[in-house]
Amino acid sequence: MKLQNQIAIITGASSGIGKSVAKCLALEGAKVVINYPFEKTKDDAQAVLDEIKQAGGDGMICQCDVSKEDEVQNMFAQTIQQYGTVDILVNNAGIQVDSPFEKMTLSQWNAVIGVNLTGQFLCAREAIKEFLRRGVDETKSVAAGKIIHMSSVHQIIPWAGHANYATSKGGINMLMQTLSQEFAPKKIRINSICPGAIQTPINTDAWSTPEALNNLMKLIPYKRIGQPEDIGKAAVWLASDDSDYVNGTSLFVDGGMTLFPGFTTNG
Ligand code: NAD
């Protein structure tokens, strides 16, 4: 198993991509901390953990709103108390609060930046503190720690009506690259996954009717919507020593969405 005994925190893991990442990492031997934000998502987080345990994996659930500094610190403290350290952070939690720009309220802007960008900053900072404290544990990995930021194709594709979301993802890219430059000498590997359209609760409008799905396919050269497992498998690779020479990279898992399919001229 590629991640035997490694401790992985996955934020926003009670649904969608985070859930699949947690399951995929656990199948490779990682002990997974399944983060969920609010009491109402606790049962979903527990169901993910139950599924993982039934498949022979292990982990715990942990409530934390990633936009709150004290809650993030508490999540890392609980994890370290339970397992002794953290080896992998998957900064996955994210929200969309869409609005035409001229009508976007400050609270809509702050909500998205708070979870998607500040949340990734807060979690990355706590992870890096622990990676620096521990250093390399050669029984587990040749790296001193790994962070995977869940970005989006919208770190490079502008997205009208979603200025807060697209800005948060553009910011994640520069956060990821800067942290990677800063901490590669300490053997800490930091990369991003940029999903295209993945079938999860965040984008139901894009796939829940045949018409919507048909329109979506015009944006995807590979002509299928992505599944959470497409991202889970990529996360396993980026978290494992198989990708040890990969630093500061954005891995686009998007069926070709970033290939400008509107420019196709041969039919
Ligand atoms: P999702 O809505 O199923 O997952 C988002 C998760 O974040 C949920 O589990 C939610 O409970 C959690 N969350 C929300 N606010 C939180 C907070 N304050 N603290 C902790 N957790 C919080 O949608 P998803 O598609 O699985 O999204 C996961 C990530 O993937 C997001 O960062 C999203 O931007 C990114 N992404 C998704 C797609 C897609 O097509 N689905 C495409 C590109 C990027």
TrEMBL record:
Gene3D superfamilies: NAD(P)-binding Rossmann-like Domain. It is an enzyme of class 1 (oxidoreductase). PROSITE patterns: ADH_SHORT (PS00061). CDD domains: GlcDH_SDR_c. Its EC number is 1.1.1.47. Keywords: Oxidoreductase. Belongs to the short-chain dehydrogenases/reductases (SDR) family. This is Glucose 1-dehydrogenase.
